[in-house]
Amino acid sequence: MLLGEGKNSIISHYKLRRRLTLLSLFMFIGFIFFKVFVVFFLEAVPIKADIENRSAQIAIFPQEEEVEQITYSDKSLTDIKEHWGEAYIKYYWEKDIITSEDGIFRPDDNITKIDYLKLILLAFEIEIPSNYDYDLIFSDVKKTDWYSPITAKSFELGLLKECVEQERKFNGFDPITIAEATKILILASEIDLDSCLLNPDENSDVGEEDPYQAYIAYAKQIKIISDEDDPESSITRAHSCKLVYLMQKYLENNEQ
Could you tell me if 196 and 239 lie in one domain? Predict the structure, then answer.
C-alpha cells in the first residue's frame, strides 16, 4: 500500500508540473499576440492618420515658387540633383535651351554675359540669325566668333547699351551681376517701366544715380528677386534660370 501510494503521488505531481508548463506556454503565447495587437492596431492607426493629415496639409499649402511639372526625358545633368535650383534648370534643359556636352551644368558657377544673353534669347524664342549685314559695334567681337550672332541680336534689341558706353567692349566672358541680369531681362520682356507704379527709392540696394535702380525696384515689386539678393553680386547659372523662369511665369499670369 505504501509503495502504491508513493507511485501515484509521483504521477500526480508529474501531471501537475506538465499542466503548469502548458499553462505557462499558453500564457506566453497569449502575451505575444497581445503585444502584436497593441503595436499594429493601437499604435499604427494614429501614425497612419498623422501621415495622411500631413500629406493633406502639404497638398493644401504648396511651395510659393512651384515650378511647372513636366515629364523629364532620359537626358540628365549629373551635378544638379537635390540642388535648390534643380527644377528651374531642368525646365530649360528639357526645352533644349541650355545644353551640356559632358552632362555637367555647374549650377553654382557665375554665368557669363554671353551665356545669359543666349538663355534670354532662346527662352523668349527670339530668332537669332546666323549672319548680319552690318558690322558689329564691339571691338572685342569678331564676326567669326560663335557668339557674334547672339551679341548682334542683343545689341539690336537694345540690351547692351551699357556695353556701348563702356569703351565699346562686350566682355562676353565676364560674369554678370544680378542688377545687370535684371535690367537685361526686363528690357527683353518689353516692359515699359514708365507705365508701372514704381518707387525706385524703396527697398533699393543700389546708389541713387545707379542706372539699374528702377529695374531692381520693379523686379522686387513683381517678386522675381528679393531683398536678400545683392544687386551688385554676380549671378550664378542656377539663379539665372530661376530669374528668367519667374519673369516668364509673371508675364504669362499677367497677359492682357
Answer: yes
